[in-house]
Each structure stands twice: as C-alpha cells, then as structure tokens.
Amino acid sequence: MVEAACLYLWDINIDDLDESEFRERICKIIGEPANKWTVTKAEMEEQCKKLRVDPFGDVASRVVSFMERVNNIIETTGWKSQLKTPNMLKTFIKVVASCITPFDVRDRVEEQMKTVQASTLVEFSKILAEQLERTYQAELVMKSRGGDRKRGRDWDEKGQRTGKTRVQLKNEQYQREAYYQNGNAPRPKGGYTKPAPVERGRDGPPRAQGATGGPSTNKYGTPATARRTFDDSEQPTKRAKYGPGQDDRGALCFVCQQPGHRARECPNKKEDSARADHLRKGKNAVKRFKYKQRKAELKAKRAVKAKIAEDGGEQRWIRLNGVFEVPYCPDTGADQNVLPQRMLEELMKLQPDLMVVTLKEPMIGMACNNLPFQANAYVDLALQLQTAAGPVKIPGKRRCYVVAEGDEFLASDDTLKAIGIDIDRLLEQVATLQLEDDGDDLEEDGDALKEQSHRSTLRIKASKAKLPEAKDEVEAALQDLINEAIDNQFPIENVQGLWRVLTKHDIWRLKFDGSDPPARVKPLKVTPKDGCVPYRCKGRKHNLLEERFLNLFAKELCDAGVIKRNQQSAWCSPVNP
C-alpha cells in the first residue's frame, strides 16, 4: 500500500521516503476532508430546513438551543473546513437566518444584517438575541392588553394555523351522511363511491322506479326512501310567525304555554315560584337603577365637556395616580397642591385603598381675591400632566391638600419646578430681553425695577413668618428655607428662636469663599491597621450633570487654594483632583 501511494499519489521513490516525511504526509491526509468538494447553497438549505427557534422559554435558552442545532449540523455534515472561507461562512449564515421562526423575527434579523456586520456565528447570535428580546417585550405588552386572544384559532410555532383543513372537514361530513343513510352497515372495502348518474326519460325528468329495471338510489348508492304523497286536502300548511308568548290562539301563559290566563294565575305554578319571581324582579330593578345612574353620570360629563368646548377655552388635564383625569391650573403661583373634595371622592371610587391623612390642626390658606380656605387632610398622589405632545410624568409622589370647594386641581410652583418649569425664571428672562431691547438709556431704571420687585418679594416672605426684613441675599435665602420648613409643618412658635440661632454667627454663604478662615476642628486622620494593603479602585462613574458640578466645584477649590493637584501621588483619584 505504501508502494502504491508513493507511485501513484506522491510520485516519489519509496527508497527516498524517510520516517518523518512519511508521518508528515499521513497527517496531511488525515487533516484534509475525504473528498475535495465545495458545498452548495442548495445543500445548505436542505440540511437547515428543519431548524426552528424554540417558541417558549427565555431569550438566552432559545438562542443557545438554536445555535447548538446549528453546530450539530456543521459537525455531522463535515462543513467545518468548508466554512473557513469568509464567503462560504457568510452564505451559510444567510441560510440559517432564513430558517428562523417566527417569521417577524426572521424579517427583522435579515434587515439588521444589512446594516450590522454578521461575518461570524457569534455576531449572528448577538443579532438573534437582540431581536428575540424585542419580540419578548412586545409579547408581554400584547398579553397585558389581551391581544393574543383569537376566538377559534390555534397557531403552531411555525406561524401556521392548526386544525383540520376544509377538505378534511368536508370528507368527514360525507362519511357521516353515508353512515346515517346506511345505518350500522360496515364501510365497503373500496370506500364510498360516487353513484352513477340517474337515467333520464325522453322528456327530461328521471324515470320512475322499475323503468330502468332496478330500485332508485341516492347519491351514496343506497336505496332512496319513498316520499310520502299527500292529497290536496292533506297538504301541510306553513305555520305563521308570531311574537314571543303568542300563537294563533292569542297570548300564552309563560308557565304552561296555554291560552286563557296569565303566569300569576296559572294553576300549574309551583308554590315557591312566587318568591323566585319576586327576587328576580328585585335584581332586575337594581340593575335598571344602576344603569340609569351610570347613564346620568356619563351625560353630566358630556355636558361639562360640551360647555368647555363652547366656551372656546383650552382645558388642561392632569392624571391622578394614573387612573383619573381632572382639569388643572398650572399658573396660580400656589405654594401647595390643592385638590377639591369632589375630585378626591371620585378618585376614592376607583382606588378604595387610597390613604388620606387627617391633619392635627387645619391649615388656613389664602386663595384668589384674598378668599381664605381651610384644608383638613392631605393625600400623596402620583401626577402626570397631559399635553398635546404626550404625557409628562412628575417624579415621585406629591402632597395634595384637600379643600371643600373647587373645580380645578391647583398645581404648585414646586411641582412645576420638579420638571424644569419655573414661572418666575421665565418672567425674568422675558423682562431681561425687554430691557435689552429698550436701549441703554433705560438700563438704570430697569435695575431699579428689578431691585424693587426683589425687595417686595422679600417683604412678603418675611411677613408670612413674622421675620424682620432681610438685609442681604444671605438672610433672604435663610428666610426662604424657614418658609419651606413652615410649609412642611414646622411649628410657628419656634420660628423666632430658629431665626436667632441662624443669624447669631456669620457662617452662611451663598457660594464658596476661599478668603474665609478655616474651621476650628481637628483634622481628619486615617490610621491604617497593621497588615492592611492599600487598594486603588476604579473611578466612580457620574452622569453629565454631576460630573459638570464636580469639575466646577473642584476648580473653584483649586483656585481658592484649599486643595491642589498632586499628579505624583500613587493613589490619586483620576476623577477628582
């Protein structure tokens, strides 16, 4: 065999073949495929036509099981060496993508492969996992909305409708009819055959029995039953159609279906039926009452909406706890959210377990036109503003004080500031633009106007807490904090003492001042234990706003000389200096 291989395969002399060269040639033969051939796309499609993605399970298990089947095909067919070329592997990936089920996932995978590189099976598996994750989330949404309920329709994992076809159902119908005609006769060996056409007479109609020499048969080959003949006087008359509880004799009793009396006078009526009728009538009366009540409420709501539409005013709506929408007014300048009692009662019908907290002492406030109002309770609600562009969700839950009267929900300034809407700041920007447009000759008057408005605001806030007039911006900021504490149920009798504590020492600043003396506290010392090894952790990740604040604050500290950069330190942080 070695001589034949040297003569016909390797074309060398057997005496020139040493052991190392022989081993090398044998290993080369073992490493190559048995036959040098190139796999075609048709062969790939034939081997991959049974590939399916599992219809159930999480995304990871479905992707792993599918790719495991792909690897089994590669190993069993011996395509591992064939798929080393990029073009052949790309063709194989396209064939595998065409076998993905369901079809909507397959289409999305093929579309994504046009824009995202999928030159290896690993990249293809990532694309498949991404699309299956999207499909899984969409299926959860559809199930929550009841979108997968289809009456009378069952679908398999391939996306095809299951059940019997129309031809199968029709064949079963023929068999049932033949069974009814033949009775309990066994099925013939050749099956039910179509009967021969009936011989017709010269004038057209079929001949009578005996005219052809045999009994007449139906289309299933069985003897036809003789039709009953009627005389002119015995022809059956078609019954006229009557209303419910009536016939040709007039009105009928609903109990015995006989004329001449009503159901309450029926002699065949049971003894306990009177109580059952009474209960049934009572239930029907309750249903009618509830229906009329719901109809009246819907009519009242339509009337309110129609009145708003006739007035031509744009109505703003806010959603409470995601279940109840009410009109609201955002530009009142209120310090707290105000909820009318009528709206709270409607919300309690939808959410009976809503917790309403009663205040120990009623809160007295001032509404429009200097009208006082009183709030005895509050409730924490999740608010969502409805706009033309879509809903705007306010973060967290907001405290809403309940008042006796009102037609609209009053949104406070803090609620609007939580989503970046500051009415005062917007007005200041407009005023600044107007002052710039008017010219330089009015600049001093504009500054005086802004200073006057700022002082009036300080006076109003100071009068609320009975505090002295603020001398500078620092005291004004402290008064704002005190007013906020009062809004959060801080006792009024302790306000004067709190003001004395805050203003006793000059320790408050609106921004960092590097010229201030250091604090009289002992410096922080860290004493490591024996045997501890220092460890440098990764820099903490911050969002853009926090990172910007840290950079600006660190720069301010560096400029003031409080801290300094130390690039030579072995444990310096790469984020903050």
What does this structure look like?
GO terms for molecular function: nucleic acid binding; zinc ion binding. InterPro entries: Znf_CCHC (IPR001878), Znf_CCHC_sf (IPR036875). This protein is flat. The chain folds into 6 domains: 2-31, no CATH class; 41-145, no CATH class; 245-313; 315-421, Cathepsin D, subunit A, domain 1 (Beta Barrel), CATH 2.40.70.10; 437-503, no CATH class; 511-515 and 539-577, no CATH class. A hairpin with a 4-residue loop joins strand 8 (383-386) and strand 9. 43% of the residues lie in helices and 9% in strands. The protein has 16 helices and 11 strands. With 577 residues, the protein is α+β, with helices and mostly antiparallel strands. A 5-stranded mixed sheet has the order 9-8-3-4-11. Strands 5-10-7-6 form a 4-stranded mixed sheet. Strands 1-2 form a two-stranded antiparallel sheet.
SSE layout and pairing:
Layout: H1 2-10, H2 19-31, H3 41-48, H4 59-77, H5 86-97, H6 103-115, H7 121-145, H8 166-182, E1 246-247, E2 250-251, H9 273-311, E3 317-320, E4 324-329, E5 337-340, H10 341-350, E6 357-366, E7 372-381, E8 383-386, E9 391-393, E10 398-403, E11 409-410, H11 413-417, H12 423-438, H13 443-465, H14 473-487, H15 495-503, H16 544-560
Helix pairs in contact: 3-5, 4-7, 6-7, 13-14, 14-15
List keywords for this structure.
577 residues, alpha+beta, 4-stranded mixed beta sheet, 16 helices, 11 strands, 43% helix, flat
